């Protein structure tokens, strides 16, 4: 075989491995198999501890030995499973045989038939996926997202009062502050992050078509739904009582839809920051030894945000495809979900890589307040909104007889650049009260930011 044929096919397992490797603990094939072993072992212990079919609870040392098999799951087990699956052509059956080998090694053959008892493969798989996805979200992806939100919040607070010309439709608009605009993204992301945190991870454990048929045949007197509920919840999951052969995956649809929503907000953040960089509002801090262009040595490219954009698009495409696919299962079971779910790690990986790039990108930026002030100083016409609004208030209060304040300011400012002197002269000639005139004379683009700085306080204190 050519050496090239042995190279990683996915950039997540090659070029970007370091940024996403934490996900391998949960969302790799090995991570899934470890979770399957965990479910199988705990089910065996659940049955023996419950005294089903005359079985006695295992001794404490035997229980520890079985659980240590899960804790120490590593390359030996990965290789052994690959060998078993080459014969079984069935991944879950290979896991069952592996556990039977370990049980035999512990001298527990008398309870061997309780391995995978009354289970369909999907009883094991759905719980394993819920465990691994939950771990990946809570231990890897959400902390990374929270880190970016914290960065945004910190920057928002630090620059809460730094005035900035807004650009609605790409045109100069009512000034805001840089901090408030960053706070908008932190607030948006925080809301959806809370929704991701609130997603339930559901599990079923009810047999081949969700009827407990085999369970009841083996022991008609047991309360199998209660046993199932107790087992599923013992794994830290929410029990789903009504399913077909599969757990219906609705929790996954909800989760991946929300994660895609996070990606879309982050994409919006990246395109805005990229634009602010191009406008000079942010300066990029050159990194030692880095090259911006192979031919133009002066360039410092916003590659962190561009890389993040691409990876966010890939992640959302996969997450949205997963959500669409997993919402449907033909009749009581089909295998479209099996192939689809093997790409969960890829979807998470591209999102995690994007978060890593965004975090790095923000650490390589500096605010260019001089450029922000220059843009404000050359766009005095944005005060037209304030002037016509004050005139309206004066008309209502009986201190002005101007017929159409909006039209008056439109004629003065639309599509034009106006100097401070021209605007002051215009205000002095207005038919409004002296106090209103004095207020408008004092107004400048940098001071016309309303409550923007105070609105940053709506971010959580943490």
TrEMBL record:
Boundaries of every Fumarate lyase N-terminal domain copy: 59-308
Gene Ontology molecular-function annotations: lyase activity
EC number: 4.3.2.2
Encoding gene per record: purB
Source organism of the structure: Lysobacter korlensis
Keyword Transferase annotated: no
Transmembrane residue ranges: none
Pathway: Purine metabolism; IMP biosynthesis via de novo pathway; 5-amino-1-(5-phospho-D-ribosyl)imidazole-4-carboxamide from 5-amino-1-(5-phospho-D-ribosyl)imidazole-4-carboxylate: step 2/2; Purine metabolism; AMP biosynthesis via de novo pathway; AMP from IMP: step 2/2
Record-linked Pfam families: ASL_C (PF08328), Lyase_1 (PF00206)
Protein name: Adenylosuccinate lyase
Function of the protein: Catalyzes two reactions in de novo purine nucleotide biosynthesis. Catalyzes the breakdown of 5-aminoimidazole- (N-succinylocarboxamide) ribotide (SAICAR or 2-[5-amino-1-(5-phospho-beta-D-ribosyl)imidazole-4-carboxamido]succinate) to 5-aminoimidazole-4-carboxamide ribotide (AICAR or 5-amino-1-(5-phospho-beta-D-ribosyl)imidazole-4-carboxamide) and fumarate, and of adenylosuccinate (ADS or N(6)-(1,2-dicarboxyethyl)-AMP) to adenosine monophosphate (AMP) and fumarate.
Database matches in CDD domains: PurB
Domain Adenylosuccinate lyase PurB C-terminal: 329-449
Annotated keywords: Lyase, Purine biosynthesis
Enzyme class: lyase
Domain of life of the source: Bacteria
């Amino acid at each position: 075989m050519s050496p090239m044929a042995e190279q990683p096919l996915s950039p997540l397992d090659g070029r970007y491995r370091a940024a996403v490797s934490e996900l391998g603990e949960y969302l790799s094939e090995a991570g899934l198999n470890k979770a399957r072993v965990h479910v199988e072992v705990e089910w065996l212990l659940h049955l023996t501890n419950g005294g089903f079919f005359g079985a006695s609870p295992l001794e404490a040392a035997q229980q520890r030995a079985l659980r240590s098999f899960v804790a120490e799951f590593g390359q030996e087990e990965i290789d052994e499973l690959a060998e078993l699956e080459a014969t079984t052509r069935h991944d879950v059956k290979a896991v069952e045989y592996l556990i039977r080998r370990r049980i035999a090694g512990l001298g527990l053959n008398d309870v061997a038939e309780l391995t995978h008892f009354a289970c369909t493969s999907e009883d094991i798989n759905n719980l394993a996926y819920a465990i691994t996805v939950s771990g990946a979200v809570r231990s890897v992806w959400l902390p990374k997202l929270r880190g970016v939100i914290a960065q945004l919040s910190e920057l928002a607070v630090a620059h809460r009062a730094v005035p900035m010309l807004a650009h609605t439709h790409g045109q100069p608009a009512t000034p805001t502050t840089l901090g408030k605009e960053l706070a908008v993204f932190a607030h948006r992301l925080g809301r959806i992050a809370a929704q991701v945190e609130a997603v339930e991870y559901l599990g079923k454990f009810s047999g081949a078509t969700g009827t407990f048929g085999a369970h009841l045949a083996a022991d008609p007197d047991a309360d199998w739904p209660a046993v199932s509920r107790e087992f599923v919840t013992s794994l830290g999951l929410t029990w789903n009582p009504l399913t077909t052969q599969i757990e219906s995956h609705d929790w996954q649809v909800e989760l991946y839809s929300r994660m895609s929503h996070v990606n879309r907000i982050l994409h919006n953040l990246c395109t805005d920051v990229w634009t602010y960089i191009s406008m000079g509002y942010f300066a990029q801090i050159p990194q030692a030894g880095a090259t911006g262009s192979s031919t133009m040595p002066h360039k410092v490219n916003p590659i962190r945000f561009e890389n993040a954009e691409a990876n966010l698009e890939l992640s959302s495409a996969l997450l949205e495809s997963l959500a669409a696919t997993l919402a449907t299962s033909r009749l009581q079971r089909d295998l479209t979900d099996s192939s689809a779910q093997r790409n969960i790690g890829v979807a998470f990986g591209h999102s995690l890589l994007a978060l890593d790039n965004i975090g790095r990108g923000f650490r390589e930026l500096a605010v260019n307040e001089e450029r922000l002030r220059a843009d404000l100083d050359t766009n005095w016409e944005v005060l037209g909104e304030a002037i016509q609004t004050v005139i309206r208030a004066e008309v209502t209060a009986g201190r002005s007889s101007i017929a159409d304040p909006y039209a008056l300011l439109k004629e003065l400012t639309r599509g034009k650049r106006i100097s401070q002197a021209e605007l002051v002269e215009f205000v002095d000639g207005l038919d409004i009260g002296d106090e209103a005139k004095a207020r408008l004379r004092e107004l400048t683009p940098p001071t016309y930011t309303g409550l923007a700085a105070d609105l940053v306080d709506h971010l959580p204190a943490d």
